[in-house]
Each structure stands twice: as C-alpha cells, then as structure tokens.
DNA sequence: ACATTAATTGTGT
DNA sequence: ACACAATTAATGT
C-alpha cells in the first residue's frame, strides 16, 4: 500500500510542513501488523524508524533474571526514541518491541531520519518531543525496577509477624499489608501473587499462609 | 436456597 | 495511581 499525501495531511498536517509531508509520502513505508507481531528484538539492527498511526506497541527490556521488564508503551502518533538513538550510531537494538494490538505505522529509512533533522525544523521538534515523552516514561519504569527489593521487605515482614504470633497464617488484607510497607494495595497484591507462584506463600481472602520454604 | 451488597483481590495501562 | 473486572464473604429474604 502506498502513502497518500492527502492521508498524511489529515494525520500530520498540524505537525509537519508541506515539503516534509511530500518526502514522507515518497520514502515512508506503510505497514499494518497484527497483535503479537515482533517489530524488534535485542541484537537486531535497526533499518527504519516507526511512527505509529494507530494501535500500540510494547517496548520491553530483558532484565537480569531474563524476564522482560516493560519500559513503556508507544501509542498515538508516537515514535520510538530507542530507534532514533540506535540508528544514528547504527547500533544494535537493546530492546524488544511487540505490537500490543493491531497497529498501523509508517516506517522511515534511517538515512532520511538524519537528513530531515537538519532540513526540517518541524521534524527536529518532533524528534525532541518523542525524546521528552520517552524520558518521562522511563522515569516511571525506574521506579518500578527500584521496587525489586520490596519483595524481600515483604518476606521479612511476614517472617516477623510469624515469630510474633507463633503461627504461620495471618488474617490480614493486602491493603493493611501495603500500609505497613508504605506502598499501594495493588503493588502488594502483585508481590504476594509472585510469592505464591514461587510457592513461598498461600493466599486466600483475608488470609496469608507462610509456607516452610519462605521461613528464614 | 437464592438474590443482593459489600469488601477484597486481580489485571491492564 | 487509577479504573475496572472478577472473586469471595456476609447478609437479608
């Protein structure tokens, strides 16, 4: 499917100047991908920079345990800051990008991305804006990674409670537990659920049982 | 036993 | 953090 200039005007008319739209129509590559489509994985080279038209894309990074940590979502008329940095240095990708739903996007060849930064003020502005947005998202992601030590605090708290009452099951809600850990109920629920998967703990309504494997 | 409500817990963004 | 869905306990009829 080739790009229609009228269509581009509808989407980007407010954002980009006319000449840029024309070039976009020439070199941009329109794509539609289904949910679950892997747009990029670690180690892959970046050949083009995407701009989303609709849908959303999850950007993840494998953490130390090999689990995939969510960095941020791409949506709206977003582009990907990682692509932008990587393509300038021709570096390999350090992230995984997966379509989170059916997504339409325009892929732009890397040469043009660089060229346009000098040529079109509106493009430069767009690039800066996507950096700014992603930076904010990343600050949020850092918070979540910092919580990695929280599961240990939770286990410690449960252990202390166990010693106090001399039994392995407590009557307590996640809400109350969250307050003791100075965190939200949701975070506590998720942490407890992980501990349950690891077989450290058994959950039921208003009740938490500390299993032998978790006692220190 | 069944319906209704409230509280707790789970999940996606 | 928030919104919403789902589940479970409690209560009234």
Number of domains: 2
Distance between the termini: 62 Å
Helical amount among residues, as a percent range?
A: 40-55%
CATH class of the largest domain: Mainly Beta
- Category by helix and strand content: alpha+beta
Q: Superfamily at the CATH H level of the largest domain?
A: Jelly Rolls
- If classified by CATH, what would the architecture of the largest domain be? Sandwich
Write the element-wise H/E pattern from the N-terminal end onward.
HHEEEEEHEEHHHEHHEE
**Backbone shape:** elongated
Q: Estimate the strand proportion.
A: 15-25%
Radius of gyration: 23 Å
Biggest β-sheet: strands ordered side by side in the sheet? 2-6-4-5
Total number of helices = 8
CATH topology of the largest domain: Jelly Rolls
Mean pLDDT: 87
| Unreliable sequence segments | none
Care to count the β-strands?
10
Protein architecture, described:
This protein is α+β, with helices and mostly antiparallel strands. The protein has two domains: about 5-145, Sandwich (Jelly Rolls), CATH 2.60.120; about 150-215, Orthogonal Bundle (Arc Repressor Mutant, subunit A). It is about 45% helix and about 25% strand. The protein has eight helices and ten strands. The chain has helices at about 5-10, 20-25, 80-90, 110-120, 120-145, 150-165, 175-180, 185-195; strands at about 30-35, 40, 50-55, 55-60, 70-75, 95-100, 105-110, 170, 200-205, 205-210. Strands 2-6-4-5 form a four-stranded antiparallel β-sheet. A three-stranded antiparallel β-sheet has the order 1-7-3. Strand 9 (about 200-205) and strand 10 (about 205-210) form a beta hairpin. The longest helix is centred in the middle third of the chain and has 26 residues, at about 120-145. It binds a DNA duplex (13 and 13 nucleotides) through helix 8.
